[in-house]
Q: What sequence folds into this?
């Protein structure tokens, strides 16, 4: 176990910890004059290791990450393929490979089949595909889509018996859903 204090003046929107216990933070706004970066990596001792991803790459989010219940909120994760985050509104998907090579940015857009209201949850599979749980207008049931980096498109799917559950993560090659009744965990493996 460890305990660290990070710079209190940085407004952190999301936080992830990697396999070396380095701490990755996505900054909500550019209030710190000397930092024009969205992403700060700290060492396991809490010292700034690197600042990445210039805010200027994302004009919509240059001053502050835009997100609300209408368009969704920022999502972030860390896995074997490195750190990733998704920005609502602009739908930019950013990956930072483990060797800290230059970040890669792609636009995911939003699914076009139905009128999507907002993104509820987003996870990345070991294949590199994104799985999104979306709210469509007034429908009480969520809709699920898979975005492939190779086709750069969203495809709707139903997660079998997990349909209607909250998408909460991945475990290996399976998606993990939490049942609406609270305690039920459901695993779904895409074919």
A:
């Amino acid at each position: 176990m460890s305990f660290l204090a990070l710079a209190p003046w940085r407004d952190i929107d999301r936080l992830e910890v990697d396999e070396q216990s380095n701490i990755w933070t996505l900054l909500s706004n550019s209030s710190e004059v000397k930092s024009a970066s969205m992403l700060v990596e700290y060492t396991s001792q809490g010292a700034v290791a690197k600042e990445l991803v210039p805010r200027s790459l994302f004009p919509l989010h240059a001053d502050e990450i835009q997100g609300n219940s209408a368009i969704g909120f920022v999502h972030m994760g860390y896995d074997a393929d490195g750190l990733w985050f998704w920005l609502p509104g602009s739908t930019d998907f950013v990956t930072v490979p483990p060797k800290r090579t230059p970040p890669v940015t792609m636009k995911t857009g939003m699914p076009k089949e139905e009128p999507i209201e907002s993104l509820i949850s987003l996870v990345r599979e070991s294949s590199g595909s994104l799985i999104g749980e979306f709210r469509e207008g007034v429908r009480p049931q969520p809709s699920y889509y898979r975005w492939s980096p190779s086709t750069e498109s969203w495809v709707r799917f139903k997660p079998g018996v997990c349909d209607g559950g909250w998408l909460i993560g991945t475990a290996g090659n399976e998606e993990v859903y939490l049942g609406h009744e609270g305690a039920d965990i459901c695993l779904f493996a895409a074919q």
The mean pLDDT is 85. The two ends are 38 Å apart (CA to CA). The CA atoms of residues 5 and 46 lie 7 Å apart.
